[in-house]
Structure formats: structure tokens, C-alpha cells
Amino acid sequence: MIRALTTCPITPSLRSGTKFQNRPVGSSGGRVATQQGAAAAAQATVLSQSIQRALDVLETLSAEAPEVGQTLTELADRLGLPKSTVARVLHNLEVRGFVEQDGLRRYRVGMRLFSIGGQALAHSHLRVTSRPYLEDLTLRVGESSYLGVLDMHQVLYVDRIESPQPVKSLSPIGSHRPINATAMGKAIVAWMDESDLRRLLTRAGMASRTRHTVTELDTFVAQLAQIRADGFAVDVGEWDEGLTCVAAPVRASNGAVVGALGISGPSWRLAGEQLNDATRLLSKAVTELGAELAPAVR
């Protein structure tokens, strides 16, 4: 076994002594109290529009060519919001360091957000425990290895070890990929309750990346049944033509699927016996990793 290195609704309280006067149900005081209670409950469930817009801006900057950045006009078009509204959001985010603007007036995610995200990754028990297994897989197979988790309706890549070879697969840490177009996504959701999965994919949609991507829900559900039988998932050219990935679920000690480990490389290299060897090593790695994880991990 590979050992991981050690790393490092609010309920308002009643004021003491407060007395309440009993009133008839039909009295005006009762109606006022009822109306106030209903208004407070409604207010508690209403999302803040300004916060939601700020988060929409950050997510859009992260998803659409983050290394290139976007102009104010591009962001406003993608968000379907007035430029004045987006400009106000950007200004507030820029002041706090969550967004940066270059000399060409293109906006990118700022280093402040990177710092916060880095803190989350550094203290992720799953990531820390998985790291030695990723290193060992890349060393033995010679291809890039990944750790991914389910983030709403996509796979979030939270760690990777790059292949030492000049031609390699690259999925940056922090990037998202569609569930239906990746072996990582399939390995994570294959054991999900089918009704929950159908609702998730119906709401999120099934992205078409290549001619090999499965975009029909019933076909995808049937494919997951085979993945459960095999214990691992493979995609050949579903995310990117010429790229193959094999992935297996990571389970906590209580059996819950908490993520997936994957190995990815060029299809002309990761095939035949090489793919079989990678699958065997991957299955062994997730079994040993799962034995190290607590019932609940993050």
C-alpha cells in the first residue's frame, strides 16, 4: 500500500424575559404576525441577485478560455446582461482582487480567487491521500493521471500528474468536463441513483464534443450499467479525437463514491496491452486508496 505524506437555517433566539400577549386568531395582531412571519420566511429563501451575478461572472471567466480572458462586451453577451451591470460587477470584483484586467482591457480570474482555491485543495483529504497513487500510476504507465470529483453537473479536476512524454494529455487542475463525454464523469455517476442522474442530465444537458460522444440519455444510462459490471469506464475519442481515458471510482470506507482516478493519453499509445495494464493498475490503486479514506472525505 502506498502511504500518503502527512500535510498539512439560522434560528433566531428569543430574548430572555420576552412576553407574548395572546390574541384571538382573527385579530389584526394575529394577521400582522402571520404576514411578518411569511415575509421573513420568503426573504430567507430569496437569493441575492448581486451575489449571483458576481458568481456568474467568475464562472464564465473560468469556463470560457480563461488564459485569453474576455472583454466587457463578450462577458455581457454571454451572460445576457447590460454592459453597465456587468461593468459594475467587474469593478467590485477587481477591487477585491478576484478579477484582473490586462492592457488590452480583457478580464481574467484574479490571483485572489486562485489563493482561495489553493487553500481548499491544500486541505482536501481526498487530494492529499490520492497524490501518491497518482504519482505511482504515471510512473508505471507513463501517461498523465488525474483525480476528479463531481461538481454540480460536471467533473472537476482537482489534481494531476503529467506524463513525462512530449505528447501527452492535459486537463488543467480546476478545469471542468462534461459527465457524459469523459471516462472520469462516467466512473463517478455510474453508481448514482438513476432517477437522480436523469434529473441531473436533463437539467444540465448532454454536451456533444466529438462524433463519439454519447448524447442520448437512455443510451448513456445503458452504458453506465456496463461500467458498473466492469468496475471501470473507458472513453475513446469522446472528449477529444485521438485521446483515450480509463477511469475508476474512488470509494470512501462506507462505500460512497467520492471521486475517480483516471489515466489519459493518446489513443495510438494507450491501447491494447498498454490499456489493459493501465486498467489493472488503476483498479488496484482505487481499491487501496479507498481503504485509506474515512467514511466522509472532501
Descriptive key words:
298 residues, alpha+beta, Arc Repressor Mutant, subunit A, Beta-Lactamase, six-stranded antiparallel beta sheet, two-stranded antiparallel ribbon, 10 helices, 16% strand, globular, disordered N terminus
Question: What does this molecule look like?
Answer:
May be an activator protein for the gylABX operon. Residues 112-295 form the IclR-ED domain. Keywords: DNA-binding, Glycerol metabolism, Transcription, Transcription regulation. GO terms for molecular function: DNA binding; DNA-binding transcription factor activity. Residues 48-111 form the HTH iclR-type domain. This protein is of the alpha+beta class and 298 residues long. The chain has two domains: 49-115, Winged helix-like DNA-binding domain superfamily/Winged helix DNA-binding domain (Arc Repressor Mutant, subunit A); 124-292, Beta-Lactamase (2-Layer Sandwich), CATH 3.30.450. It is built from ten helices and eight strands. The strands form two sheets. It has a six-stranded antiparallel beta sheet with strand order 5-4-3-8-7-6, sandwiched between helices. A two-stranded antiparallel ribbon has the order 1-2. A hairpin with a 6-residue loop joins β6 (233-236) and β7. α6 (125-141) runs antiparallel to α10 (272-292). The longest helix has 21 residues, at 272-292.
